[in-house]
Amino acid sequence: MKTTMQPLTFAEMTVGEIVADDYRTSRIFEKYGIDFCCGGKTTISTACREKGISETVLFDEIANIKKEAAERSSQYGSWEIPFLTDYIINVHHTYLKDNLAKIAANARKIAGVHGKHHPEVIEIASIFEKIAADMTIHLKEEEEVFFPALKRLDGFIKSSLTPDAKDVETVRSVLSQLGHEHDEIGEAVHRIRHLAKSFEVPDDVCPTFRVTYLELNEFEDDLHKHVHLENNILFPKADKILQAL
């Protein structure tokens, strides 16, 4: 997004397009509670209407943040598919593999200890248990099927060679599946935040309760960026390859 654009053009853009162009703008959308990852296809005009925000105010805040010097390392939209997929695996998949089981165990623990007085944590533990199970399958599908096939297609396109028809079909079918799974996980995470009252820790709880809410908040932050990189940057790149074929 260029800061010289007219507000009408800005209003017609999607939230995902703006964050894909400059990830720093995600801070503005988070400030106003606008979902930029799973809700990335929402237009600015729709997002502002739903949140009761002035389009002009949002435009000015985004324009101001874009005046700051951008770090080259955060310009994710310019990354090539092989580098982007490797980054997602090494950073976000690694985080999930290291933390899903631990967070799920802590959520079960506080549900057992505090569920009587804070029944919301029982539902939170159940929701996160399903998230952990679904994410484990999701990561395996990406690492073993989708990413390798997409990398091969990208290589064929760049080399002007004819791609394997099986890879084309794999990318086309799995792309739709992954997008649907992102939506389901996103809804589950929104539900956890609602139940946890934005992770506000009650006064009468143990340290494990506090740690678990911090972990859940951190998980949500990581997921937002993870899903953004795929929904708003990687998947559109995959769509372009399919269209080119």
TrEMBL record:
State the compartments where it is located. Answer: Cytoplasm
Q: Which InterPro entries match?
A: Hemerythrin-like, RIC_family, ScdA-like_N_sf
Task: Give residue ranges for domain Hemerythrin-like.
Answer: 88-238
Question: Per its UniProt entry, which superkingdom is the organism in?
Answer: Bacteria
Q: Which UniProt keywords apply?
A: Cytoplasm, Iron, Metal-binding
Can you name this protein?
Answer: Iron-sulfur cluster repair di-iron protein
Organism of provenance: Pelotalea chapellei
